[in-house]
Amino acid sequence: MKTILDIVHEFRESDPPLTYLGQDESVAHGKFLEFEVVHWNGTTRIVPSEALNLPGRPGDRWFMYRGQTTRYPTCQTSLLRGAPNDEWHIKALLTLERFRVAELELVLRDHPFKAVSDRLGYHVDYHGLAQHYGIPTTLLDLTSNVEVAAFFAVARWDTGSHVFRPMESGTGVMYRFDWAAIGPGYSKFFEPVGFGPGLRPARQHAWTFRLPPGVDFQQVPHVVAFEFTHSKSASEELFARFHDGAWLYPPDCLAQLVEKLRDLPFVTMNAIRHAAKQDGQRPEDIEPGADRAAHFLNAKLGLDIVDGYELQPEEEDLEVARQQASAMADALGKLRFGFRPVRTLREDSENTPR
User: Fold this and answer.
1) Among residues 179, 151, 175, 155, which one has the least CA distance to residue 165?
2) CA distance 113 to 95
3) Measured CA distances, 252 to 108, 130, 173, 260 (Å)
4) How far apart are CA 254 and CA 318, in angstroms?
């Protein structure tokens, strides 16, 4: 069986990497910025250039990728993985997801990066950030970068030492998703996580895919699985490319904060009320609706509901955040606004994921 390096080589034959501009190159024929600003699903987003239909790029196929160290019988989202097949339990989990994302939005409303994104007019995808940083959601992590997916296909997280370990034996899997083959409207299923309060999503060229409850990613049209044999030398080569994973996980002011939020043994009424406002509920309906939601979560998931609690970032995290926001504001100011079309839609709408 092939190794991960064989798989990467084959993928790159049909999805060749872009050649990026160097920092000292203002204009260069055939070279691109790593990210561009485009209108995506009605908002201004920062998108990896490799995901765009760029002039002069060879080929007519474009892909998203997902790497796993093991191929499991099904590939489902983190929120519903292992959940009982009970309609009300699933509804409770979906409700919890909505409130956790609302809590994250509340935590980040005074974050230094929020002022940067507001000033520059960039949309912040809180749902995608929640998924990317480990809060269980109905989204699935993907990347537009082959090598990033390959790293995650050979990197085992050691919870004891908090480091990645290269896989040496067994069978891994790379999923390749010909996303534009879905047809008209394909982009609405995908969101670029882009730049955020932390650097991690950009480094990983992170995307999310909205997978309907109960659907196995492996059964989605235009998704193909490529299994490979783990090899110590192949894994170590990918580890060397990404500095044992450190390049993909730079110091991040958001990671610890989201970890606290993810592990909260309760839900806050502030989050429930905020979600209701964001979802357009009438002011007079918010409080009674919040009470009903609180009772529902308590009854179905056994979660306590706390009023008056606000999760706050530590001052040391805020200092890192201020430094990163300043550096990110400079980087974002140099991005090019793309007047390029996103990938050409194919007349294949009957294959929309269900």
Assistant:
1) 155
2) 27
3) 14, 14, 28, 14
4) 9
Of the candidates 209, 212, 216, which has an alpha carbon nearest to the alpha carbon of residue 190? 209
DSSP strands (E only) in the chain: 35-40, 43-48, 64-68, 139-143, 155-158, 163-166, 171-177, 190-192, 206-210, 223-229, 266-268, 304-306, 336-337
- The reported pTM is 0.89
CA 256 to chain centre: 17
Side chain identity at residue 292, one-letter code: R
Q: What does the block give as tokens for 276?
A: 């209701």
Q: For the chain, 354 residues long, give each residue's pLDDT as a single digit of tens.
A: 899 999 999 999 988 888 888 777 776 677 888 888 888 999 999 899 888 876 655 555 689 999 999 999 999 999 999 899 899 999 999 999 999 999 999 988 888 888 888 888 888 899 999 999 999 999 999 999 999 999 999 999 998 998 999 999 999 999 999 998 888 888 899 999 987 777 889 999 999 999 988 899 999 999 999 999 999 999 999 999 999 999 999 877 788 788 888 888 899 999 999 999 999 999 999 999 999 999 999 999 999 999 988 887 777 777 777 877 887 787 777 776 553 433 333 333 344 455
Report d(CA 152, CA 166) in Å as an integer. Answer: 10
Contact 63, 177 (CB under 8 A): yes
In terms of Cα–Cα distance, which of 149, 301, 289 is closest to 225?
149
Three-class SS state of 306: strand
**Pairing relation of β-strands 206-210 and 155-158?**
unpaired
- Each domain of the chain, given as residue ranges in start order, spans 4-264+311-345
Residue 309 one-letter amino acid? Y
Cα distance between residue 275 and residue 283, in whole Å: 12
The whole-angstrom separation of Cα 89 and Cα 85 is 8
CA distance 168 to 26: 43
Radius of gyration of the chain from its Cα atoms, rounded to whole angstroms = 21
Per-residue tokens: 124: 């912040």
